[in-house]
Write a structure and sequence with these properties.
- This protein has 8 helices and 3 strands.
- By secondary structure, the chain is mainly alpha-helical.
- The protein starts with a helix and ends in a 13-residue tail after the last strand.
Length: 302
């Protein structure tokens, strides 16, 4: 019954996440069209740059949703882990897309500094205010899903930062409307680019680390080994490897030296329970007796 309830909970959560992605994509794509049109007629690089950023977010949301769907496919004889790692690859691709957006915004903003043009400040204020509502609402859709998945977290952070950026554009629009200081629009574009760069850098580094099979963020390999060594009967741990199967699943393999191989099943159960509490669910353990430990015989690591 407990397994059935857990499976049902996972299905409900998956459906909720699918709906969140679909609604976020529709809302943001609709807003991108409005913002592009308004930015063109208002001659605002702030709106156009934010629209370009939001378009990148729509693409990122679509890729993230696609990766989440792929990650649920069953393993095959060729892809024995399934397609879980697509979530990592998409996170890396999303970071690259955002960096390209930063370059575009910087270029447009610098051009506007040297060639300022009149801007309809009131139009900027109205459209950006709509952006605050749209981005705030769609970020809220992911707030309960983003804690344990880098893909979903990146979507949440992008949308939340977009809401804050739109607030900045509203402020710039008010200043332009009241003072006609058109250079403020270009300066806001640069600020937007810097905010995106700052929020993207951690995503980029974490995605690269996961793609290179580094120990996932939030897991201390020394602490993992220490907790495993605290289990009664465990005399040594070596050839330990910890890596990400996806943006929310972690795997571990290790050789475990024990005093008596007859205790291997009981020790394995305890070790897997400890590791599961540390968010490491996919565990493969090889047990060795103390007298013929692989480490002592100097065998090579895989």
């Amino acid at each position: 019954m407990e397994t059935h309830n857990h499976h049902s909970h996972q299905q409900i959560e998956a459906k909720g996440l699918n709906k969140a992605f679909l609604l976020a994509i529709i809302c943001n794509f609709g807003f991108v069209i409005v913002e592009f049109v308004a930015g063109f007629f208002a001659n605002s690089v702030g709106l156009l740059s934010d629209a370009g950023h939001n378009l990148g977010d729509v693409v990122s949301l679509a890729l993230s949703a696609f990766a989440v769907i792929l990650s649920r496919f069953h393993p095959t004889k060729k892809y024995t882990y399934g397609f879980k790692k697509t979530t990592i690859l998409v996170s890396l691709l999303n970071a690259i897309i955002l960096l390209a957006t930063v370059v575009f915004i910087f270029a447009e903003s610098i051009n506007k500094i040297f060639h300022p043009e009149p801007i309809q400040g009131l139009s900027v204020v109205v459209v950006a205010a709509i952006g605050v509502v749209i981005n705030g609402f769609t970020a809220w859709l992911f707030i309960n899903h983003q804690e344990h998945d880098l893909n979903v977290k990146s979507a949440y952070l992008h949308l939340a930062s977009d809401a804050m950026v739109s607030v900045g554009v509203v402020i710039a629009g008010i200043v332009i409307w009241l003072t006609h200081w058109y250079i403020v629009d270009a300066l806001i574009g640069i600020v937007i680019a810097l905010i995106i760069l700052y929020s993207t850098w951690n995503l980029l580094m974490e995605s690269i680390n996961l793609a290179l099979n580094a120990v996932p963020k939030g897991i201390d390999s020394d602490k993992v080994e220490e907790q495993m060594m605290n289990v009664d009967g465990v005399k040594g741990i070596h050839h330990i490897h910890i890596w990400a199967l996806s943006t929310n699943e972690t795997a571990l393999t290790a050789h475990v030296v024990i005093a008596d191989l007859c205790d291997s099943e009981a020790i394995k159960h305890k070790l897997k329970h400890i590791l599961n509490d540390m968010n490491i669910a996919h565990v493969t353990l090889e047990f060795e007796p103390v007298d013929i430990s692989c480490e002592e015989s100097s065998c090579e690591e895989h």
